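User: Some background: our group keeps a shared notebook of sequences we're curious about, and every so often someone picks one and asks for a predicted structure to add to the entry. Today it's my turn. The entry only has the sequence so far, pasted here. Could you supply the structure so I can complete it?
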Amino acid sequence: MRTSSLALLLLLALGRPAVAADGAVLPLPAADQQEIASILGPNVVGQALPSKTITDAAAYFPLVEKTSVFQVTSGEKAGTQQTLRVAKGKRPGGNAAWRFELSPTLAGFLREVSGGDLMMPAVSDSGEGVIVVTTPANPFVLEGMAPGESRSLTQKVSVNYLDDPTDQRYSGALTGTYTYVGTYQLTVPAGSYPALLVRLKYAGKVGPANTEDTAYYFFAPGVGVVAMISQEDVEAFWIIHIDTTTGKVLASSQ
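Assistant: Of course. Here's the predicted structure to add to the notebook entry:
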């Protein structure tokens, strides 16, 4: 066995973050496999596939307007479907402003920054009338990430009410890790896709709540998000720390 392959296997066995060469096949870690299967279902994630460094973030989340239907797999809305959109607005100077709906009332705002990274600086919850801003922004898809690579995050968080955005009702700080876990064959109602998996894990305190959470996004090239595990209710999670984790899988897309 080549030295590089042996080193990768040793790192995986020890449970440490590993940076793998292009084409490496990274088995889904047992803890992630158990969590994902319990929320998305046991037959959604299939075999591990060769993984490559991300050289074009927009290929994994195309910045085009589209409407998708997702099947909810867990939580109080399990079994229902949600119609979610990727929409474009315009800013002065003709700059595009993108919004990705995570649920019918939850939207993440996306910005393509210099170098091609896709970042999510804010999430609005129209149902609760709040917006959560993270500084620096949450990574969504990062250029140059190698298979198995992790990057650390330290963020400030502010929670403002939409009826009075100048009123910063809650604030706090988070530390976290963004990881390119690997590439896996995904089977969802919309079809079967080779999908890159990223995991965003963070902990901290926002307002009165001690917060700890893990979000997962599966990105298929040319398609975008084909499955995800994230919070459904921003205010309940960030401010009161009620677990509202929900899984969704792609059912159809236009």
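Suggested note for the entry: The radius of gyration is 18 Å. The helical segments are 3-14, 30-40, 57-60, 234-240.
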